[in-house]
Design goal:
28% strand; eleven-stranded mixed beta sheet; 44% helix; 258 residues; alpha+beta
């Protein structure tokens, strides 16, 4: 009897060991699939990843070729594209059920398409979708239905990002006011710290909402300044005279301001 139990236990260990080996040997593929699947659910747009290469020993790696598509109703095929994201994970926080600490995230040279339509900008639309998915709006029931924790029955692992930077980005702004033209302006650098730390960790969607909010604000800031310069003071005065002080409102509408 004991011999049979020992054999059964040994077989179980082999199966577990094989499963763990398969998981770790395919970790990059799992991360790629998770970003594409849950990213697409959260943004309600197509999210694709070119490749993932993360070292299991150092926790450092690169996620390359990330593209976030535009929501329905906007002309451009994509909202954001990034050549590479560099990450550094605190590997000591990976085992267990506590929050995974990501020490560093650097998003370098993102291309951001900032397109304004009748219902606001494309980035605002994506931000609303992510907010709903994260449970931050009244549409929490649909968010729960779409979330991985709801479908799996287990709580979603939370994260803390200690330091996140976005630099050397480019904003391409478009609007009906530009009559088919596009303006390209630098995206101001973004630096966020301790994301999720105050609450003991946050879901990926909650962190994504904060990051997207910062990108949207900076893109609007850069774009509105460029439009003001492009249109010129005389044009804005003409708008004010013709429509009763609508110049500022027009610019605000151009960039989806509330």
């Amino acid at each position: 009897m004991l011999k049979k139990i020992a054999i059964g236990f040994a077989v179980l260990l082999v199966l577990i060991g094989g499963g763990v080996y398969y998981l770790f040997s395919n970790l990059d593929g799992f991360i790629k699939s998770a970003i594409e699947t849950y990213g697409s659910q959260a943004t309600q747009s197509s999210v694709s990843v070119g490749s993932v290469d993360i070292s299991l020993t150092s926790g450092q790696g690169t996620i390359s070729g990330i593209t976030v598509g535009n929501p329905a109703g906007y002309s451009s095929n994509k909202a954001v594209s990034v050549g590479a994201i560099t990450v550094a994970i605190d590997t000591s926080t990976v085992p267990g059920n506590g929050p995974i600490v990501i020490k560093l995230v650097n998003i370098s040279k993102p291309d951001v398409n900032y397109e304004v339509g009748p219902n606001g900008s494309n980035l605002q639309a994506i931000q609303r979708n992510v907010q709903a998915y994260a449970g931050g709006s009244g549409n929490s029931s649909s968010a729960a239905a779409a979330s991985p924790s709801a479908s799996s029955g287990s709580p979603q692992r939370k994260q803390i990002i200690s330091d996140l930077t976005i630099d050397s980005g480019l904003v391409t702004a478009s609007s009906p006011m530009l009559a088919g033209r596009e303006l390209k302006v630098p995206l101001p650098s973004i630096h966020l710290t301790n994301l999720g730390a105050s609450s003991g960790g946050a879901t990926a969607a909650q962190i994504g909402e904060q990051v997207l909010s910062a990108i949207t604000a900076k893109a609007a800031q850069a774009g509105s300044a460029a439009i003001t310069k492009d249109m010129g003071g005389a044009a804005l005065k003409g708008l004010d005279g013709a429509g009763g002080n609508i110049g500022g409102g027009a610019l605000k509408g151009l960039f989806g301001g509330g």
